Amino acid sequence: xxxxxxxxxxxxxxxxxxxxxxxxxxxxxxxxxxxxxxxxxxxxxxxxxxxxxxxxxxxxxxxxxxxxxxxxxxxxxxxxxxxxxxxxxxxxxxxxxxxxxxxxxxxxxxxxxxxxxxxxxxxxxxxxxxxxxxxxxxxxxxxxxxxxxxxxxxxxxxxxxxxxxxxxxxxxxxxxxxxxxxxxxxxxxxxxxxxxxxxxxxxxxxxxxxxxxxxxxxxxxxxxxxxxxxxxxxxxxxxxxxxxxxxxxxxxxxxxxxxxxxxxxxxxxxxxxxxxxxxxxxxxxxxxxxxxxxxxxxxxxxxxxxxxxxxxxxxxxxxxxxxxxxxxxxxxx
Length: 333
Ligand code: PBG
Fold this sequence. Notes:
alpha/beta, TIM Barrel, 38% helix, binds ligand PBG
């Protein structure tokens, strides 16, 4: 019978590593990766984050050293999150010129600003004493209290200008307020920052996968609250396109889907819908699940890490924000 099958034999192209590499459709590239980094005010050495093995809260000095190494490894960008020593009801450390992120951005702009993209997460949840992503319209402990959308936009505009002044190339609004991209674009343009780009966290879901991140930034939402009043409901995929269209109309340069692995359908739909770069955030809980299962010996870390990053790329993401950025770059060497 051999030779008598006029059928396609897909296995032929899998018969050697050389052939598999030749025909591979998708490759993760270090230049498309963004490393999320945490900088904490008032510490003199980096502090580990228990629920994010291998990730630390950096000092101003240690983040500088880390980012230089990431740039040397060819990683495309970093995104900074701040952990201030003092928090208040409006998150004023987020736009203070002496705020920890602004100080670090200035250091990094001088150190690697010519060869690496510097992104600043733009939100107030790390900076507010109630842990919400905007200013509140009532007392924090009242269950009817919600985030005041339009009052928050005014704060976001101030943060954008502070971050651009400090040296951010890209600002990334993550608060899911309606109109945030337009407000930020307006503030940046009025202050003369017409070249500062906006990476909009457009389709950001109210997810259980942000738990370790909240440890990393010392955020507890007041009175056991949650973000379901502003982040997207995970039962909805089409709604993501409504958010994307709104952000593009307001001037977003790049759009993001977050989290990534549980939302590959959304990444694919967004990719098919737009012609701007699509980013996806492989979030803290996705990273922590990988690390925990690998630490138990239940899965092979390196195989699954590469499989996950490749899946995010294959779904259509151009840019991937991931705590695995450094691991990937080193594994490639
Ligand atoms: C909000 C923000 C969050 C993350 C990125 N930006 C937390 C949230 O929305 O509660 C989560 C990232 C992660 O889990 O890795 N500033």
